[in-house]
């Protein structure tokens, strides 16, 4: 499988319910079709159960999780999921060459632009995320 969904998760900026919903929805993707990077404080990381294939980085200090996630962004044109409420990744999302999903309870206005889908799994449910993931991966050549 060539296409891959990149999921960048800022655990500091999502509630436990949203983290759990995202991890539940991400299970629809085969492990070889996803790259999951999670960063946050120890307390934030403990709020969810991460799958074995997740690259989890404990980060301390202001903006450290953002720095970790930015460093792990690989510029691949495939589907990108940004799980974060703040707008720090707004420009990255706007310039990404591929479909972008933002998982957030109160997404920054930076994400409210054409081509970026925002889903709050607490309000819309995990099925909305699953449907976006499958559609984006299929459109990127992940399922033939």
* Helix-strand category: alpha/beta
Major beta-sheet overview: 6 strands, parallel
> What is the CA-CA span between the terminal residues?
9 Å
CATH class: Alpha Beta
Q: How much helicity do the residues have? A: 25-40%
CATH fold call: Rossmann fold
Shape: globular
Q: Could you say what the CATH architecture is? A: 3-Layer(aba) Sandwich
In sequence order, what are the helices and strands, one letter per element?
Answer: EHEHEHEHEEHH
Ranges where pLDDT stays below 50 over 5 or more residues in a row are none
Q: Could you say how many structural domains there are in total?
A: 1
Overall average pLDDT: 88
The helix tally amounts to 6
Strand content: 15-25%
Number of distinct beta strands: 6
Strand order of the largest sheet: 3-2-1-4-5-6
Radius of gyration: 14 Å
Description:
- The protein has 144 residues and is α/β, with parallel strands linked by helices.
- The protein has a single domain (5-139), classed as Rossmann fold.
- The chain has six helices and six strands.
- The chain has helices at 16-26, 42-45, 64-72, 90-95, 121-124, 126-139; strands at residues 5-10, 34-40, 55-58, 80-83, 100-103, 116-119.
- A six-stranded parallel β-sheet has the order 3-2-1-4-5-6, sandwiched between helices.
- Helix 1 packs across helix 6 (126-139).
- The model has no long low-confidence stretch (mean pLDDT 88).
